[in-house]
UniProtKB/TrEMBL annotation:
Its cofactor is pyridoxal 5'-phosphate. Transmembrane segments: none annotated. Belongs to the class-III pyridoxal-phosphate-dependent aminotransferase family. Keywords: Aminotransferase, Pyridoxal phosphate, Transferase. This is Aspartate aminotransferase family protein. GO terms for molecular function: transaminase activity. InterPro entries: Aminotrans_3, Aminotrans_3_PPA_site, PyrdxlP-dep_Trfase, PyrdxlP-dep_Trfase_major, PyrdxlP-dep_Trfase_small.
C-alpha cells in the first residue's frame, strides 16, 4: 500500500524513495511504503513529520542513553567545534579531548586494559580488533595462531571482518562471507538449545565443552581469540546462563586464546553496571565499545587493549616503521569531547545507580508478558530485554516466518506510539534511553502490550 505522502511527487517521503538506500530495510517494500520520517526528539520521545509522538523504546539503535536533546552534549559539541573542529591522530598528532577521553575510559574500564584506540563505529572497532589480534600474534612469533571464534547469533557489525564474526545468516548470504579464519561456536540460548532434562548449569558446561572441542579440532596453535557480547543484542537479547563466561574463560586460558568483549550495546550502564563484562563476569583482554559512549550524538567507538597486546604493537611498529592502521576520524576531537561529557554526565547524574533503581520495574513488566498468549520466553538484563513469540508455548514451536508476526507487532506498536524492534526472527526487543522514568516504563509496556494484542488475530 502506498503511503499518502508517497503519491505526492515532491514530498520528502517520495524524495527519500527516489534517492536513499536504507540500511537493514526490505528495499522492495520500502519503494511501496516509504519511510517514517523522524523530525525532532526530546527526552525519550521522538516526533515524526506529522507531529506524532513515539517513545523511542530502542534508544535509536540501542544507543541514545541520554535520550534526545540533552543540552550538555549539544553544548560540548558546539564548544569543541569552535575551538578545533577537526584534527587527526596520525604521526603522533593529538588533541586534548582524545587524550582526556582515553584516560577516562581506562579509569572506568574493567580488568587490566591499558591503552585505547579510537574508531568511528562498532563495526570499525571490531574490524580493528581482528587486525590487532593478528598483528599481536605475529609479534609473538605465532603466525599460525589467527582463527577467531565468534558465536552463532552474535552481532559484531557489517564491515568485512565484523560481518564475518556476526553469526546471523542474512549478513553472510550473497555477501560472500564469512572470510577465512572466522569460526562460530554454539549460541548460549538455553530456551532454544538446551536439551531435555539438561539444567542451565549443565547447558553452560556443554557450551564450554563444545568450544573446547572446536579449539581442539582446529588445533589450539591456530586459534587466537574468542569474541562475545556479554548479552547478545541483535541476535535476540540472549542472556547467557549463570556461570557461562566463567566456564568459557577457563577454556580460553587453557589454550592461550584471547577474550574479546564486544561492549557496543552492553557498555555504559545498559546491564545495570558500567560494563556488561562486570554483570556477566568477563575479564577481557580486548574490549570494543561505541554507541552509548557518546549517547550516539556523534559517531565514535573505541578499542581497549591490555598492556601485553600494546607491547606487541610497539614491537611491530619498530619492525615496520609505524603501526600502519587508523582512520581519518580516529579520535576526532568533536565526538571525543561529546563522549567525554557523556561519561562525566553519567557520573554527575549517577546514571548506573538510576538504572539499578528502575531495572526491577522494567524486569517486572517484561516478566508479566510471559503470560501473554503469544510469548514463549522473556529475556531481560538491566534495561535491555526481549520477548520471543511462539506459536505453541508447550512445544516452543515458532510461527511460520512468512507471517512476520514480530514485524507486524512492531508496526502495531508504532501505531500505538512506541518504537520497538523485531530482531532475529520473532523476537521483539526494548532497550530504552537510560534516562527513562518509572511512569514512562509503564507507559512503554502498555503500548507494547497493545501491539502484541493487535496481532493476536494473525496468530490464530
Ligand atoms: N557490536 C554490537 C554488539 C552491535 O550491537 C553493533 C551494532 O548494533 C555493532 C557491533 C556494530 O556497530 P556499528 O553499527 O556502529 O558499526
Amino acid at each position: 500500500m502506498n503511503s499518502p505522502t508517497l503519491s505526492q511527487g515532491n514530498s520528502l517521503a517520495s524524495r527519500d524513495v527516489k534517492s536513499l538506500i536504507h540500511s537493514y530495510t526490505n528495499l522492495s517494500a520500502h519503494e511501496k511504503e516509504g519511510p517514517l520520517i523522524i523530525e525532532t526528539g526530546k527526552g525519550i520521545y521522538v516526533y515524526d513529520d506529522n507531529g506524532k509522538e513515539y517513545i523511542e523504546g530502542l534508544a535509536g539503535l540501542w544507543c541514545t542513553s541520554f535520550g534526545f536533546g540533552e543540552q550538555e552534549l549539544i553544548d560540548a559539541a558546539i564548544r569543541q567545534m569552535h575551538k578545533l573542529p577537526y584534527y587527526h591522530s596520525f604521526a603522533s598528532k593529538s588533541t586534548e579531548p582524545g587524550i582526556l577521553l582515553a584516560e577516562k575510559l581506562l579509569e572506568i574500564a574493567p580488568g587490566n586494559l591499558s591503552k585505547v584506540f579510537f574508531a568511528n563505529s562498532g563495526s570499525e572497532a571490531n574490524d580493528t580488533v581482528v587486525k590487532l589480534v593478528w598483528y599481536y600474534n605475529n609479534s609473538r612469533g605465532l603466525p599460525k595462531k589467527k582463527k577467531i571464534i565468534s558465536r552463532q547469533k552474535a552481532y559484531h557489525g557489517v564491515t568485512v571482518a565484523a560481518a564475518s564474526m556476526t553469526g546471523l545468516p542474512p549478513l553472510h548470504n550473497d555477501f560472500d562471507l564469512p572470510i577465512q579464519n572466522i569460526l562460530h561456536t554454539s549460541c548460549p540460548h538455553y530456551y532454544r538449545f538446551g536439551k531435555d532434562g539438561e539444567s542451565e548449569e549443565d547447558f553452560a558446561t556443554r557450551m564450554a565443552t563444545e568450544l573446547e572441542e572446536l579449539i581442539l579440532r582446529e588445533g589450539p596453535d591456530t586459534v587466537a581469540a574468542f569474541i562475545a557480547e556479554p548479552v547478545m543484542g541483535a541476535g535476540g537479547v540472549i542472556v547467557p546462563p549463570k556461570g557461562y563466561f566463567q566456564k568459557i574463560q577457563a577454556v580460553l586460558k587453557k589454550y592461550d586464546v584471547l577474550m574479546v568483549a564486544d561492549e557496543v550495546i552492553c557498555g555504559f550502564g545498559r546491564t545495570g553496571n558500567m560494563w556488561g563484562s562486570e554483570t556477566l563476569g568477563i575479564q577481557p583482554d580486548i574490549l570494543s565499545c561505541a554507541k552509548a559512549l557518546s549517547s550516539a550524538y556523534l559517531p565514535i567507538a573505541a578499542v581497549l587493549v591490555s598492556e601485553d597486546i600494546f607491547r606487541g604493537m610497539v614491537k611491530q611498529s619498530e619492525k615496520h616503521g609505524a603501526f600502519a592502521h587508523g582512520y581519518t576520524y580516529s579520535g576526532h576531537p568533536v565526538p571525543a569531547a561529546v563522549a567525554l561529557r557523556t561519561l562525566e554526565l553519567m557520573e554527575e547524574r549517577n546514571m548506573v545507580e538510576h538504572v539499578q533503581a528502575i531495572a526491577p520495574l522494567f524486569e517486572k513488566r517484561f516478566q508479566a508478558l510471559a503470560d501473554h498468549p503469544l510469548v514463549g520466553e522473556v529475556r531481560v538484563c538491566g534495561l535491555v530485554g526481549a520477548v520471543e513469540l511462539v506459536a505453541d508455548k508447550a512445544t516452543r514451536q515458532s510461527f511460520d516466518p512468512s507471517l512476520g508476526l514480530a514485524a507486524n507487532a512492531v508496526k502495531a506498536m508504532q501505531d500505538a506510539g512506541l518504537i520497538a524492534r523485531a530482531v532475529a526472527g520473532d523476537n521483539v526487543a526494548l532497550c530504552p534511553p537510560l534516562i527513562i522514568t518509572e511512569d514512562q516504563i509503564n507507559d512503554m509496556f502498555d503500548k507494547f502490550e497493545q501491539g502484541l494484542n493487535a496481532v493476536l488475530p494473525l496468530a490464530q
